[in-house]
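[09:14] KT: can someone run the structure on this one? pasting the chain below
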Amino acid sequence: MAAVLSSTINIEYLNQDFEIRPFDNTFGAEILNLDLSRPLSDEDFKRVHQAHLEHHVIVFRQQNISPAQQVSFSRRFGPLQKHVLSQFALENHPEVLVISNIKKNNKAIGLVDAGYFWHSDLSYLPTPSLGSLLYAQELPRIGGDTLFADQHAAYDALPQDLRERIEFLHAEHWYLTRYEELLARNPWRPKLTQEQIDQVKPVVHPIVRTHPETGRKGLFVSEHFTTRIIGLSENESREILAELFHYSTLPQFIYRHQWQEHDIVFWDNRSVLHLATGTPAHLRRKLYRTTVEGTVPF
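[09:31] RB: done, structure tokens below
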């Protein structure tokens, strides 16, 4: 019998000649001429990682990747998290959440009203998200923009007395905070099973979060998921949160992303809040989201 020869092949990924172009804004950048269907070299990955930290929101233009490739690229940044609404996971890809207003057989194929309120993805979990990657599949002719708000800039703009007041305070985050309101607004949003409710019990995080990689301080509260400030009266908690929500979304801290075909947007949930502006009901919109797990806030 002939001997079977085996050998180990070392694959060296070639660097790509891509450009990182900051937006004409206080944050955000687009990345041009980078092909995410090709595995990134370590050097290219470091450039992308640094751009993500520096600009908070990065946009990869003109991508053509499969769900498996999106999952693979996302995992370069850390383990992936699955959304509690598992009924909207992409078939055969449980890490991919479908965000869409498309209906099939009188059922929504994805989460219709994702991002209705300002929020940071999965802040309601003990270990919130590092970042989210959203990949455009179908875009409407009009509408469908996404807003991002810089929470480092918002923290820096706080009056000194308010900044000192909240420095060591903690707040509760809860997925169900406004869920009944969303159900009343949107008949396509599903009611939660008891098993799903048990997955999203309230958690407590610091109001002022230190970014674990850059060391920058930023606000970590949102109108969607933050319920109350621990240790304060209901009235005082409500007043301070209202003031923080105001500063967190001031116009000068916002970048408005107008989607282009084949965009992938990767934002840092430790640095920004985001909001969906809405899509006309008669126009189709579908995107695929992967979410990278972060670390416990401090």
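[09:33] KT: thanks! DSSP finds seven helices and 18 strands in the chain.
[09:34] RB: yep, looked fine to me
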